[in-house]
Structure prediction request, 600 residues.
Amino acid sequence: MAAGRAFLGAPCSSLATGARRLAFASLPPRALAPALRRRVPGRRVASVSSSPDAASAPEPYVLTTPLYYVNAPPHMGSAYTTIAADAIARFQRLLEKKVIFITGTDEHGEKIATSAEASGRNPKEHCDVISSSYKMLWADLDIEYDKFIRTTDHKHEGVVNEFYSRVLSSGDIYRADYEGLYCVNCEEYKDEKELAENNSCPVHLKPCVARKEDNYFFALSKYQHKLEELLARNPDFVRPSHRLNEVQGWIKSGLRDFSISRASVDWGIPVPNDTKQTIYVWFDALLGYISALLDDGEQASLQQAIDRGWPASLHLIGKDILRFHAVYWPAMLMSAGISVPDAVFGHGFLTKDGMKMGKSLGNTLEPKDLVERFGADAVRYFFLREVEFGNDGDYSEERFINIVNAHLANTIGNLLNRTLGLLKKNCKSTLVFDSIAAADGVPLRENVENLVDKAKHHYENLLLSSACESILEIGNLGNLYIDEQAPWSCFKKGGESAEKAAKDLVIILEIMRIIAIALSPIAPSLSLRIYAQLGFTEDQFRLLRWEDTKWGGLKAGQVMMEPKPVFARIETETTEEAQASSKAAKGGKKKSLSKGLVEA
Prediction:
């Protein structure tokens, strides 16, 4: 039989039929998204480990976001932190780590009571509403957390009380009067030397209020040398390095004891030995990282929570709360005789069109709106790819659309679509060679393997933008290869040329399989759609490990899905369309910017 006929006609009968087709594979990308979301929104669906040593697994990898303050609904800054944390957690799961990804809400304090009153609710009702909005946004953003802690949970209050008693027993809590300038938004007394003009808070730019209170204090100054020793012994405790320099500067300038109770705030956990005062919101909230380790409804026990996985492997935070996590928190833990976390990573701020965001400027960026317009994969990819993790980053809609279209729709989506189109036309959507055999003697394989190793290195070092770049470069190599080899022309020639063309398609599809795994921490739903197009099931996707990025996953006889675009290209609106969108919005209707789809 002439070699060309096997590719232009029906595949050989000896070829296996391949993996069964997915029922949802025929759905358009936007309609497909809900089917790919986890069964319980926000909460991760546990998968069965394929490792024979699962029973003797090492210590868990405990990763936390801040517990977000519920004075207002989630904003893009909190969404950014959580997207990054989710990407790190997904990568660690690919390494077969037992990951405990913790997020949640901080629900006590003066600012919460004030916000509740302004909204016409009592504090608990207000907290319920805002905490739920975080859970809903995390589901929309494909965030798969393991634990969601609320500081109003009963188990949390019990842990706080036990911890307070430990610190009290260490002799590190005392009572004293304090007079100073207080920022209600920071929930913190400020040193005059750090204030802006008119005694304004440098973060919130609002005047601080003079207060005098009889409070309980934590002896932070007692731990100055121990904190210096901690940073000298483990400089990676604070990352990136320029954040470490900030922390060292704070400690070097001298640490002052800080107030850990409030006499004027009713909405909080009562001080165990003085119910006329409530525990300071930060002394309360930081302990959520430990209380979260307990199961829901479980009896509160500080030691039991610690035994479940403490210390944390990584606290991921914004740089504005670095002092609380890198100075106050480790000192508090030392006082209670508890291990400090392994590392604290402080990332930068987000701006919009080069300007700081704020309601007064009318340029806020609402994450819910972004997801509704562009989808979770686009939002996740842009912020993780375009913002160098640890530094400040900027959002502009024009750049967002250009980056997402160029990288996800064109480089990745279009490469898959046109390759599957050629496979359907010439090989009845069936692989004729194993990917190992197809790539024999082809240098492209080694180049791809090197980029996979680079991506892994970047993920391990929290260089998320660089990881995205390495994965995109794999796609660039695939596009360059298919353009150079021109399999569409080789199939027309028949014979050995057609056989070579069939191998080239397998090579490209193997590249797409590898991209689907390597990109899954960043854009999980897109990665699943790619994997489904390659003839695999969702269950197979859920069991993937980083080890599966090794070349050789595609086998001869495997049947690919019908070629369909996996990512909707974003089309910018004309002036007339923008006006129509504005009118539709006023009428209560929303118009998506996603008009077209990538074409093969």
About this structure: The chain has a mean pLDDT of 86. The longest strand covers residues 173-183. The chain has 23 helices and 16 strands.
